[in-house]
Here is the input.
Amino acid sequence: MGSTMPRTRLTTPLVRKDGVLVEATWDEALDRVVAGFANAQPSGATSFGMFSCSKSTNEMNYAAQKFARKVMGSNNIDSCNRT
Here is the structure.
């Protein structure tokens, strides 16, 4: 049974150039992510925070807290696990 819904899932990353979203390579998109995180880091540990989802696996939440603490140098990580 085929779907008549239009395909809306992105298959390539988009980056903003001069205010417009354009397709980019994965390397270009990831380089921009790294640069954005690097720009936040020099401002101190309080400049970065992360929110993790309780519906994620324990392994994914563990990886998120490790990233926040070890890579970004921030203890500002929270999740809705306690609700």
Observations:
- The first helix runs from residue 26 to 40.
- Helices lie at 26-40, 58-71.
- The two ends are 39 Å apart (CA to CA).
- The beta strands are 14-17, 20-23, 50-52, 77-79.
